């Protein structure tokens, strides 16, 4: 039967790391919309992206064939280490607890998902709410495209106003991310004739995972919130745009190290019969084009 004290000091087994990464991707708003992660290691990771697309044009018989440009650029992702130390009583750590690995997977996955979302969407530290950036990674909410909800004819008009901002550039609008606070607005939305827009009847159990034909992901992190109250609500209720402009990845080594002799914040684990658990992992991200997104901010509800 597994216990916390049985955790290997050098880190988790590779198969458990894979489970954590998969669970984090399932819970993350960014991962659900941006697709599969790119391979990441502990060092800087470079990748190619298209800078120019070829075009064909008419050409006369026996005339020189036109030349078209085809270009690629290289961008780099600087990985960032994330870590925390928690302490538990030795009695708890030594107890036989069924499913302890499952609990670790769930908690680590949720923490990794929040860390990824808040970093990519808002450039925020999930624990403190403070701003941070790594290299030239950027963050989605820094886009200048903005729609104040309630300023257009109805909710659909608000959403389409944001779509037009993104579509006016060279990016594809392929998905929405919403804070759960926005779901009641979608559920109760009415058209000009007073008919429900997105649901035939109010149903809080409905997933509403598509909107206007595009995929939707919901999460508290869209508004900048985390489990920690220090990460405050930004007023953003939704973000839409071209999620292919976000690249991210996890290093596949997530470590949990246990110590009963360490000193944490001046407290001796040995003297107080506690065990300290160090959790750390590395991830990286980059937002290629912040103009590929639009943010929908709270405003006066549409009549």
Account of the 3D structure:
By secondary structure, the protein is an alpha+beta fold. Helices cover 22% and strands 26% of the residues. The protein has one domain: hypothetical protein PF0899 domain (hypothetical protein PF0899 fold), CATH 3.30.2320. It is built from six helices and 14 strands. Helix 1 packs across helix 4 (100-122).
List the keywords.
single chain, 303 residues, alpha+beta, hypothetical protein PF0899 fold, six-stranded mixed sheet, four-stranded antiparallel sheet, globular
Going by CATH, the architecture would be 2-Layer Sandwich
For the record, the count of structural domains works out to 1
Reading off the top of the CATH hierarchy, the class is best stated as: Alpha Beta
- Discrete helix count: 6
Widest sheet, order of strands = 4-14-8-5-7-6
Could you say what the CATH topology is called? hypothetical protein PF0899 fold
**Share in helix:** 10-25%
- The count of DSSP E runs of length 2 or more, i.e. the number of strands, is 14
Gross morphology = globular
Major sheet characteristics: 6 strands, mixed
Structural class by sheet pairing and helices: alpha+beta
Query: Could you tell me the mean pLDDT?
Result: 83
Order of helices and strands: HHEEEHHEHEHEEEEEEEEE
Report how far the terminal alpha carbons are from each other. Answer: 59 Å
């Amino acid at each position: 039967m597994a216990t916390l004290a049985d955790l290997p000091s050098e880190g988790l087994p590779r198969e458990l790391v894979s489970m954590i990464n998969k669970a984090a991707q399932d819970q993350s708003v960014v991962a659900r919309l941006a697709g599969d992660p790119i391979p990441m290691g502990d060092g800087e990771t470079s990748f190619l992206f298209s800078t120019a697309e070829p075009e064909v044009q008419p050409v006369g018989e026996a005339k020189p064939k036109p030349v078209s440009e085809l270009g690629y650029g290289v961008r780099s992702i600087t990985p960032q280490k994330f870590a925390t130390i928690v302490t538990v009583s030795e009695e708890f750590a030594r107890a036989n607890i069924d499913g302890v690995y499952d609990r670790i997977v769930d908690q680590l996955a949720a923490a990794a998902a929040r860390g990824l979302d808040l970093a990519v969407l808002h450039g925020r530290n999930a624990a403190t709410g403070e701003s941070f950036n790594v290299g030239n990674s950027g963050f989605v909410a820094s886009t200048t495209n903005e729609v104040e909800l309630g300023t257009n004819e109805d909710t659909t008009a608000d959403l389409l106003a944001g779509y037009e901002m993104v579509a006016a550039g060279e990016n594809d609008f392929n998905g929405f991310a919403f804070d759960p606070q926005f779901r009641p607005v979608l559920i109760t939305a009415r058209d000009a004739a007073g008919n429900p827009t997105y649901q035939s009847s109010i149903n809080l159990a409905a997933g509403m995972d598509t909107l206007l034909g595009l995929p939707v992901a919901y999460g508290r992190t869209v508004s900048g919130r985390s489990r920690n109250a220090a990460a405050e609500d930004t007023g953003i209720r939704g973000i839409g745009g071209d999620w292919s402009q976000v690249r991210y990845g996890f290093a596949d080594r997530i470590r949990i190290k246990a110590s009963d002799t360490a000193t944490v914040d001046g407290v001796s684990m040995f003297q107080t019969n506690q065990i300290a658990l160090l959790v750390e992992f590395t991830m990286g991200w980059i937002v290629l084009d912040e103009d590929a997104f639009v943010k929908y901010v709270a405003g006066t509800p549409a009549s």
